[in-house]
Amino acid sequence: MSSACQMVDAKKELLQNNHEVILPKNTEQYAEKVLAEETAHESTKNKIEHDLIRDYFEKIKNADAVLVVNVDKKGISNYIGGNSFLEIGFAHILNKPIFILNDIPEMIYTDEILAMQPVVLNGDLLKIQ
Question: Side by side, which strands form the sheet with 98-100?
């Protein structure tokens, strides 16, 4: 949830352009600092207790597309973490369009991301039709 503020900003812009938006659970609370960023242990526990990975899969299954808001993290420009990588994979398997806000990062799974052929928006949400 380190990019919660950017996800909320993207939601606002997309809503202004008549898109429906579903954010991950508690994104607004993380953005408003009502909830603190979780440690890895807390995050794992939360994912298990709330079955979040299956929940996100269901949301993707019922969505028209997936947008990954990838910002700098852990010293990596435009970082895409494990959860987002899974969600890109779900969207790809379900033949859903995949949009990535910023360039694809150089990471160990860059080739796999490229193979799923996402649309890189270069920061321009208006490119989403």
Answer: 66-68, 98-100, 119-120
